[in-house]
Structures are given as C-alpha cells and as structure tokens.
Amino acid sequence: MAMAVDNENLQVSASEAVHEQPKRKWQSYIWDSLDKSPEERKFLFKLDCALLTFASLGYFIKYLDQSNINNAFVSGMQEDLGLYKNQLNYMQTLWTVGYVIGQIPSNLILTRVRPSIWIPTLEVTWTVLTFSLSRCNTAEQIYAVRFLVGLAESGF
C-alpha cells in the first residue's frame, strides 16, 4: 500500500510539473522564440554576429583555397612544372582524401581540446601549408602538401 501512495504522489507532482511550464510554440523548436529578456536577446545577437562572421569568413577562405590549385594550373603552373592534365585531378583527389580522413579525428579532438584553441591552430597550419605550396617544384611535393592542407581544413 505504501507503493500505491508513492505512485499517487508521483503522478500528482508530475502533472503539476507539466502545468507549471509554459507551453512553447512549435516554431521555437526550429527558430528561437522572442520571450527572452532584452539583455539576453542583445547578448545572443552579438554572439550570433561574432560566430557567423568568423564562420563565414573561414568558409570563404576555405573555398578560395580549394580553387587556388585550379587557378594556378591554368595560369602557368602546368608549363612551369611540366605537369600533365591528370596530375591536377590527383592533386584535387589527394586534398579530398585528406579532408575526408581528417573529419572524424578532428571532431574527436574537439571533444578534448577547446574549439577556441583547435580551430585557430588548424587555420594557422593550413595557412602555412598553403604558403609552402609556392616552394613546391614537383608534382609529388604538391601531392603531399595538398593532402596535408586537406587534413588541416577538415576541422573547419
């Protein structure tokens, strides 16, 4: 009988808890609701602006880096280094392989290292590797650097 009394109390307290919480509109699950204080809304706006600016700029630079090998190939790299057409495909493929291989380890590292440390470290690494492409003299050197650039970009 003590169990029945406990169950009744639990049912009453659970139903009271449900009635105490204000109902949320279904849109608030997709998009944030406007029932926040003005201070909290201002803070969230500043946070959104900072994060979106950083993420958009990083994605734009990443896209430029992905396409820079095509621009260089067409602009004379092919003749300067004596490259063949299929070697451009190998360069792009090795970047993609590095990018795909680095996705899971980079996300696992993000669970152990703060993103404010890990992401800028990857961006600096990726920048140094991109600059080092200018010193490559053979297709094999470009393959290695493009693979490492793909690894560095995989965390972003």
From TrEMBL:
SUPFAM superfamilies: MFS general substrate transporter. One of its GO terms (molecular function) is transmembrane transporter activity. It is a multi-pass membrane protein. It comes from Elasticomyces elasticus. Residues 51-156 form the Major facilitator superfamily (MFS) profile domain. Its main location: membrane. Keywords: Membrane, Transmembrane, Transmembrane helix, Transport. The lineage of its organism: Eukaryota, Fungi, Dikarya, Ascomycota, Pezizomycotina. It is found in: Membrane. Gene3D superfamilies: MFS general substrate transporter like domains. This is Major facilitator superfamily (MFS) profile domain-containing protein. GO terms for cellular component: membrane. InterPro entries: MFS, MFS_dom, MFS_trans_sf. The keyword Oxidoreductase does not apply.
